Amino acid sequence: MMLKKFSIAIAGAGAAIAATFTTVSSASAIVNGSFEAGFNGWSTIGDTRIEDISFGTPPSDGNFNALMTNGFGAVSDFAIENFLGLTPGTLDSSLNIIDATEGSAIKQTFFAKAGDILTFDFNFLTDEFTPDFFFNDSSFISLSNLDVLADTNSSVMFSLTSFFEETGYQSFSHTFSESGTYTLGFGVVDAVDTVVDSGLLIDNVELTSVPEPGLIFGLSLIGTLGATSLKGKQKKEM
After folding, report:
1. How many domains does the chain have?
2. Please, are residues 101 and 193 in contact by the beta-carbon 8 Å criterion?
C-alpha cells in the first residue's frame, strides 16, 4: 500500500514537471529558427529569400536557410534602421564603416529569461575584394546592441555560390542577463558603393532556456521519493 502511494506521488510530480517544462519551452521558443517553413515567424525587408543546398553551400541545419543580400531589391540604410528600431546613423557608427548605403534584414520578437542562451549559425558571402577597409560590406546582429558578425576583413575562402568568397558557417552565442521581450535582427549592408554585392546566410537559430526553480525542486522531489520507496521495499523484503 505504501509503495503504491509513493508511485502515485512520483507520477504526480513527474506530470507537474512535464507541464512546467512544456510551458517554459513554448513561451521562450524561437519560431522557425531553421527556416524549414520559409519566413514564417519572421519579418523581412529588402532582398531576402530562402535557399537550399542548390545555392552552393549546404544549410547548417535542416534543408533550408535564410539569405539576405545588398543587391537588387535592397533598401536604404535608413529603412533598415527604422525596420529594426535603431537610431538613425547606428549602422555607420556601430559597424565602423564610412557610409552604409543599402542592404536587407530580417527580425523576430520573442521573450527570454535571464540565463537563457541564444545560438545561431551565420555565413557571410561577398564579391568585394578582400580585405577591404573602404568598401567594407558588413553583416550584423541586432539585439541589445548592434554587433558585426563578419565583413570584408574577415577570414574568407572561395565560394561555390554565386558569390566569390564566403566565411563558411560559423556559430554565435549570446547569454541574456535580464528577462524581457527582445527583437532579434540580422542584416547585411553595402558600404560606400551600391555596385558590388555581399550576402548573409542565417540558420539554426535556437533559444535554450534554463530550468525553472519548480523544475529543479520537482527533480529533487522525485529523487527523494524514489529513494524512500526503495528503502521501504528493501526493509519489507528483509
Report:
1. 1
2. yes
d(C-alpha 172, C-alpha 166), whole Å: 16
Does residue 172 lie in a domain region? yes
The pLDDT tens digits of the residues spanning 71-115 come to 999 999 999 999 999 999 999 999 989 999 999 999 999 999 999
Kindly state the DSSP code that residue 87 receives in the 8-state scheme: P
User: Grid coordinates representing 29?
Assistant: 521558443
CB of 101 within 8 A of CB of 77? yes
**From the centroid of its chain, how far is CA 14?**
31
- DSSP code for 41: T
Could you tell me the end-to-end alpha-carbon distance of the chain, in angstroms, rounded to an integer?
17
State the Cα–Cα distance between residues 200 and 14, nearest whole angstrom: 43
Q: pLDDT for 173-230, tens place per residue?
A: 999 999 999 999 999 999 999 999 999 999 999 999 987 665 545 555 555 555 555 4
How many other C-beta atoms are found inside a 10 Å radius of the C-beta of residue 114? Answer: 11
**pTM of the full predicted structure?**
0.81
Which residues constitute the domain of residue 135?
Answer: 27-211
For residue 53, being part of any structural domain is answered with: yes
**Could you tell me where the DSSP H helices lie in the chain?**
2-28, 77-84, 90-95, 213-237
Domain CATH code at residue 32: 2.60.120.260
